[in-house]
Design a protein that fits this description.
Elements: H1 2-21, H2 27-33, E1 51-52, E2 58-67, E3 77-89, E4 98-104, E5 106-111, E6 114-119, E7 123-126, E8 132-136, E9 144-150
Antiparallel strand pairs: 1-2, 2-3, 3-9, 4-7, 4-9, 5-6, 5-8
């Protein structure tokens, strides 16, 4: 009986998400028709769970998910990464783009073999399909913290 209820609920969620993705209804309209009210949420990034980025993708780096399809944003995932001393991603490429805003510290973005120094307040757009990586270029114990927005398929770890 419980399995059937869970299956029905999952089917409802998938159907609802498909309606939003097809543009038949907005997320707000969908929630309103189900009797939910949209409300503002607030919080602090340091209160979110910090997940270590797997070693095959980055060193000395943690990720916090601020918004995602599971939390107020159907089409994107907003993450905050913190790279400790010696932290950085490994060179990689993928089909999706990144939108990045530097929150704290100093780093280097290496895009197609060229170094781009960044610091708090810097922003960048990294198009999909290009080799890139980021690393902490701060001195001492300075952290490098940045916000990164990708489509849901780009949040793979």
């Amino acid at each position: 009986m419980i399995g059937c209820a869970v299956s029905c609920f999952c089917a409802f969620l998938v159907a609802s998400r498909n309606r939003v993705q097809k543009g038949e209804v907005s997320q707000k309209e969908l929630l309103l028709e189900r009797g939910f009210k949209m409300k503002m949420i607030t919080g602090h990034v340091n209160d979110l769970p910090a997940y270590p980025v797997p070693a095959d993708h980055a060193d000395n780096t943690v990720r916090r998910v601020v918004f995602s399809p599971d939390n107020c944003w159907d089409t994107s995932v907003m993450r905050v990464f913190t790279m400790e001393r010696g932290g950085g991603t490994h060179e990689h490429e993928h089909p999706w783009s990144h939108w990045v805003f530097i929150l704290e510290g100093k780093g280097i973005i290496v895009y197609e073999g060229k170094d781009y120094p960044v610091e708090a307040g810097s922003y960048m757009f990294i198009p999909g399909g290009n080799k890139h990586y980021l690393y902490n270029a701060g001195s001492g114990d300075e952290v490098f913290r940045f916000m990164c927005i990708v489509p849901p398929e780009g949040d793979t770890f």
